[in-house]
Amino acid sequence: MPLYDCMLLLKPHVKREGLMELVARVGRHVYSRNGVLTEIKSFGTIQLGYGIKKLSGRYYQGQLMQMTMMATPNINKELQYLNKEDRLLRWLLVKHRDPKYGLEFLNEDDGELELNKLPLGNIFDDEDIEEDDDDDDEYDENPENGGEH
Predict the structure, then answer these.
(1) Residue 124 DSSP label
(2) Does residue 139 sit in helix, strand or coil?
(3) What is the pLDDT of the chain when averaged over all its residues?
(4) Distance CA 108, CA 103 (A)
(5) For residue 122, is pLDDT > 90?
(6) CA distance 79 to 85
(7) Section 32-49 average pLDDT
(8) Position 63 confidence tier, pLDDT thresholds 50, 70, 90
(9) CA–CA separation, 6 vs 25, rounded Å?
């Protein structure tokens, strides 16, 4: 069974009991399909980058929860009932794709990429850096007055 992250963004006024009831409901659904919840994280109340409009108003804050689970591949279709959940602003299901980090990522091509073979130094070529020409005079409104406005 693949690993999934389910992100739940709840309305900011939802009580802790309501939040836990929703998380337990999703957990029971996953468990009933022979899945396993491996981790639950709460990020608390967060500020949103934009307002999310719902029938009860526009929300600029939300309570963010992350549930990591091992579940069957059709879990996305089975969680569609969350669309009708009144306490949720948004939800998202993300499938883990066997992530590799650091040296594990660099060594996956049988050592073709090693840290000591990576180029050192400046990321810019010296040829690409243009010298600043003092072209300020062409932008002055009153060249007779020495560029003063």
Answers:
(1) S
(2) helix
(3) 81
(4) 9
(5) no
(6) 11
(7) 94
(8) very high
(9) 13
The DSSP line for 15-42 is -HHHHHHHHHHHHHHHHHTT-EEEEEEE
Report in angstroms the alpha-carbon separations of 122 from 33, 100, 115, 119.
53, 27, 16, 9
What pLDDT was estimated at residue 98?
74
Contact 54, 86 (CB under 8 A): no
In sequence order, which ranges of the chain are alpha helices (DSSP H)?
Answer: 16-32, 75-78, 102-106
Residue with tokens 């468990």: 31
Strand order in the sheet with 36-54: 36-54, 57-70, 3-10, 88-95
| pLDDT at residue number 1 | 84
The DSSP output letter for 105 is H
More confident call, 50 vs 149: 50
Structure tokens at 98: 């066997």
pTM: 0.65
57 three-state secondary structure: strand
C-alpha span between 139 and 149 (Å, rounded): 11
Portion of the chain with pLDDT greater than 90, in percent: 60
CA distances from 4 to 11, 36, 46, 89 (A): 23, 10, 22, 20
